[in-house]
Amino acid sequence: MKDYVVASTKAELWTKLLAQLESGPRSRILAEAVSALLPDAAVLIFAITESEPEFWTLKAALGDVSVSERILPLDSGTLGAVAREKGILQFTANELDREDFAHIDLRQNFNTITCLPFLLDEQLLGCIEVVSFSTPPADEVLDAIAQIANCAAVALSSAAAYESERNASLSSVLRLTRLYDIEKVFNATLEMQPLFEIICSKVCDLTGASAVGLWMVDQADMLLVQQSGKGGGSSIGDRLTVGGGVVWEVGESGEDMLVQEEDESLRIRNERSPDGAIVSLMAAALLNGESLVGVLEVIRIEPQEPFSEDDLFTLTQVAASAAQALHNSSLLQAERKIQVLQTLVSIAQEISSTLNLPRVLEAIVSQPQLVIPYERAAIALERRSRLTVQAVSGIVKLDPSSPDIQLLNEVLSWASGLGTEIHVTQHDEEISDPRPETREKFRRYFQSTGSRSFYAIPLIDEEGALGILSFESPDADFLTELHFEIIKVLASQATLALRNASLYKEVPFIGILEPLIDKKRRFMAIERRRRALILTLAAVVLLALVLLPFPMRVGGQAEVAPAQTQYVRAEEDGVVQQVFVHEGDKVAPGTPLLQMVDWSERSALAEIEARYNASTAQVSRALIDNDASGAGQRQLEANYLREELLRSEQQLTRMTLRSVIAGTIATPHVESLAGRKLSTGDPLLQVTDTADVLVDVSISEHDIELIKVGAPATIKLESFPASTFRGTVRVISPTSETLGEERLFFARITVSNANSELRPGMSGWSKVNAGAHPLGYVLFRNVGLWAWAKLWNWFSW
Fold first, then answer.
1. How do 720-732 and 712-717 pair as beta strands?
2. Are residues 429 and 498 located together in one domain of the fold?
3. N or C of the chain: less Cβ packing under 10 Å?
């Protein structure tokens, strides 16, 4: 028997064990080996986990038994005795209570239970538990099983190490995968509030936390903006100031922290927390570069296990992704705010730049649609104690008799009577207003118009009510807090603009005449001699203004441009082989710029040239042989090949791109074109002719009539503040461009640039000589044009 055990264990058993890597299959092999020695017994293989605390795990079972629980405490019954003794133990049925082998479900009576431990360097790794139903195992069988246990200890130890390493690798891969997925989820959301919710929920799921709180920097405090789970005694909207615990400390230092239950700060917090004692707390700073964005607080409450350093590392990685996502979201919010401010400024400029009431009304109802997603905006004004709709977005010509306008006018009149802003929405069949009569009114209104949200704000200033402004949309939630703020600012601007426009319409002509009458009365009260002197001086000044010639110059912003620009493009498909020039090089007409790869062209040229030479030789040979017919035929072929040869030479020539004009290479990093594959027409180089440059001068539409082609001009450039450049007007643009509210024409001035001092893109100021005009015309021309425009607008002469 001993020889059999030795042979079986050291040969077949080891072969089978080494063929498996995991503890489960190896335990099964061990159970089969033991069962072969004890055919009428049941065999159980248990292993001890390396976790804290340790416990028994069933790895294999053979025979007429079953196990209800595969995981058992270390001190359970017979297995607990093995854990204490670490030796071979045998128990008879009479010695044991049912609780001692409660982990085994037996279908028949047993005789003995024998336990043989797996020991490796005095460390208990597991146990073989043998349940004998007839006679106890003989001593020689126990010796054989003991030898199997000795071999099994090494096998189970290596299998446990393999599984631990594999599980660690799988855990790392799983963690990286989850971190990658979380980062994608974070970056897929740019809206701030949804991003808050996603960050907290994902961190809560990833760490198995009881609660996760997101604290954001709000001026000098920390504000809890979002929370997932329950615990920690905090709620959304809470603030932390100086000395506000772990979260404040992490925000101050930027260092992540892991705090356990025994920490003093956590103990104090648990005393005032109504949600249960916090077992463990992690906090990670959300940093954008060196700037603190916020802090992630992760809490675990009993009876869960405390967080580990691995959990803190995971939180740190997630915090970096969350900080980046929050930064991206803040950029979007900032961009939106800039757009809102630009729109508000544009609207303010539009409605304040004119006193034309229809134009003001149109701007108020149309322009805000750039930042407010409304379907319809309307404005109604009070006229003789009656409110009437004056403008509706999207309607150029308003028809007061239209049923839609009449219904809108009715609702706005009712809303104006409230004297305050009103916001009514409909979700499904529910109207948001608490008053039954209002709900019924808007139920009919929404059914008629298709809208699901109505917002109106009165236009009131210190002089009284002007009217009311309303916005509607089929989306019940189309207005956010930001939109409400925009509308309130817009309402203030609109009220001021409408009041000015209304007063402007009511100003009588006496407002203009009164100052003139007052000045005449004061003048006539002056002494006669002094009055005569004043009149004489006024006449002299008037004659000087009318008769005295004075040079007039028209100024404008100036920008230097090249007089001529050549854009070199690929003439054929191919690859750039060599670049002959660099940025800033001066080139003459015909200078090689680029060389394209021309192997196929050279090969084709050589082939055609050889065929042409052969055909020419055949012509000579036919003439020598007096073969006139053959010579003529060969001559025709030679003529055709000569034409092909010329075309091939031209094709080869086109592979070298040359400059058409004299100028300077203006393409940056032109050397990088080498090796690039190009298609016909692809842009390659820009050659600018800077021997002469053009200076574009912006001229106001009011002054363009004064500028003539050939007029002299002087130019001051910011790059040469001490130098003055002179040129002549070459071209006056036939069309204008709009800059803000001003329309500009461009006078293009030719300036010599022999020293290449002037470079395209330089800017400055230019004055164009408009000839000599009367002094009064030079000084008061702009004032006169403005007055004439006003008079024409009033009287339409």
1. antiparallel
2. yes
3. C
